Amino acid sequence: MTELLTFPGTDELIELSARFETAPASKVVRWAWDTFGGGIVLASSFQDAVLVDVAVAVVPEIEVVFLDTGFHFPETLEYVELVRRRYDLNLRIVRPEAGPDFVPCGSEGCCQLRKVEPLARALEGRQAWITGLRRADAATRSEAPIIGLDPARGLVKVNPLAVWTDADVAGYVADHVLPVHPLSRRGYLSIGCAPTTQPPVDPDDPRSGRWAGTDKTECGLHL
Fold first, then answer.
1. pLDDT by residue (tens digit) across 5-24?
2. 215 in any annotated domain
3. Which of 40, 74, 157, 175 could staple 150 via S-S, CB 3.0–4.6 A?
4. pLDDT tens column, 174-210
5. Number of domains forming the structure of the chain
6. What is the DSSP code (8-state) at residue 4?
7. What is the CATH number of the domain that holds 169?
8. To 10 degrees, the CA torsion angle through 150, 217, 43, 3?
9. 31 contacts 184 by C-beta, under 8 angstroms
10. Which ranges in the chain belong to alpha helices (H)?
11. Catalytic, out of 105, 110, 111, 219
12. Does residue 152 lie within any of the structural domains?
């Protein structure tokens, strides 16, 4: 874990986040790169290519991290490669290190081993990270700032798409003719690991197809 930054300070981050509420996502990425340069990394789940498209238009060389849990749909891995080729991404794929022989997919132990710990390694030596987190994703994310502190990791966390609605995302994909994840065309609105992902059981809740039948709503990356 890197040492918590003393600049920008918490008050400045709050002020910046408020100022960026109506700013284009590209302007947020530009601020992040101008502030942290190579000290920042973009983490993408590759559910879609919106954040990647926005970011590489501003900073083509930005490092993009994908956490390969070992349980992704084949379609997700194919989509990652498609997007990588389209943008000639500076892509880093991070996989779990050796752990217990069997940890049930979707359990806290599995998410810790296959997502949280690999992300920690990907963020070593960094000062900030960019994510595709949006307030519209889930109630647990409804107050996500555009720029804020990630106190668990001692980093600045940048969410350029925080204010985007589902309609904003769909419009951007259509306007920019972005590649679409194959499972999105089959009704999957939130795509994670194959054993614990299905089309939403509640059409008004895109993430209701994740860990359906349990009270789990987050894997731990954004807590």
1. 445 678 889 999 999 999 99
2. no
3. 157
4. 999 999 999 999 988 889 889 888 888 887 777 777 7
5. 1
6. P
7. 3.40.50.620
8. 20
9. no
10. 10-19, 25-36, 50-58, 74-87, 108-111, 117-122, 166-175
11. 219
12. yes
Closest Cα partner for 158 from 48, 46, 30?
A: 30
In a domain, 214, yes or no: no
Number of H helices, E strands in the chain: 7, 6
Which of 221, 27, 30 is closest to 132 using CA atoms?
221
User: Does residue 48 belong to any structural domain of this protein?
Assistant: yes
Domain containing 150 equals 10-209
Residue bearing tokens 């309609």: 167
Structure tokens at 140: 């647990």
Helix (H, G, I), strand (E, B) or coil at 49: coil
Q: How far apart are CA 70 and CA 103, in angstroms?
A: 12
CB atoms within 10 A of CB 91: 18
Q: In angstroms, rounded to a whole number, what is the distance separating the alpha carbons of residues 78 and 150? A: 31
Task: Give yes or no: 111 in active site.
Answer: no
